[in-house]
Amino acid sequence: MSMAANVMYARMTGWIYLLLAVAGLFDRHLFYVLTLPVLTTLIYLMIGLSSLTAAHKASAIGLMIYNLVLGSALVLWGIAGTMHPEWFVPAPLPLDNALHLLTGVWAFYGLLSVAWKRSRSAKAKQEDAN
Question: pLDDT tens digits, residue range 101-127?
Fold first, then answer.
C-alpha cells in the first residue's frame, strides 16, 4: 500500500509538472489561470523528469525521501507565493499557489500511510501479546 502510494504520487506529479512545462514552452499564461515564466517552466520540467525517474528507478526508502523533500519544497513554494507574491516575477496567480500546495500536501499521503500501517501493526501485535 505505502509503496504504491509513493509511486503513484511520484508518477502523477511527474506527469502533471511535465505537461505544464511543455505547455509553458508554447504559452506563458495558460488560459490566464497559471503563469508559466521561463524559470518556472524549467523548474516544472526538472520536477516532472525527476519524479518520473524516481517513480521508475528509486527504492522504497529513496522514493519516500524524494517525496518528503519534493512535498516540503512545494508546500514552502505555495506558502511563499501566497504570503509574499512580490518575491516572484511575475507574481503568481492563486491557482499557481494552489497547485503547489495541493501537490505538496499530497506527497505526505504516502508517508502518512506508512506511519498508519506501522502503528496499526504494532497495535495488533501488542493486542496479540496480551
Answer: 999 999 887 677 766 777 777 666 777
User: What is the DSSP-derived secondary structure letter of residue 85?
Assistant: G
Q: Domain count of the chain?
A: 1
Q: Is residue 50 part of a domain?
A: yes
Helices (H) and strands (E) in the chain, counts: 4, 2
Tell whether 126 is covered by a domain: no
Which one-letter DSSP state was computed for residue 35? Answer: E
Query: Is 98 within 8 Å of 45 (Cβ atoms)?
Result: no
Nearest alpha carbon to residue 73 among 93, 44, 31? 44
Structure-block grid coordinates of residue 34: 497559471
Q: What is the pLDDT of residues 75-96, one digit of tens each?
A: 999 999 989 988 887 778 888 8
* The overall pTM is greater than 0.85: no
Q: Which residues contact 27 (CB under 8 A, 6 or more apart)?
A: 36
